[in-house]
Amino acid sequence: QVQLVESGGGLVQAGGSLVLSCAASGRTFSVNAMGWFRQAPRKEREFVAAINWSGLNTVYADSVKGRFTISRNNRKNTAYLQMNSLKPEDTAVYYCAAGRGSDVSTAVAAYDYWGQGTRVTVSS
User: Residue 97: pLDDT above 80?
Assistant: First the structure.
């Protein structure tokens, strides 16, 4: 099993920045791709960004491209999501996910482990 713990959420004004962290523990050697998803009230969980084990392959949702950056530090078993130019529509609970597969994926079903989420609120 792999445990994921997110941190870094909070309240920020529009235009501001936040950095989310996702610390993995347990059988982390089994983890390859890592991703971030988010879920706003009364909406489906949606893909935000993903990164493969080497960090050389990343993919982003169109809505965050150019504003968010995903990265990882395998020595620390931690993934990050740098969020800049935040907008009120970015308000959601952000979830970290990890998958045993090597390919980055935008699909919820592609990930095997999930964190509990961290709330991000962007005020206008």
Answer: yes
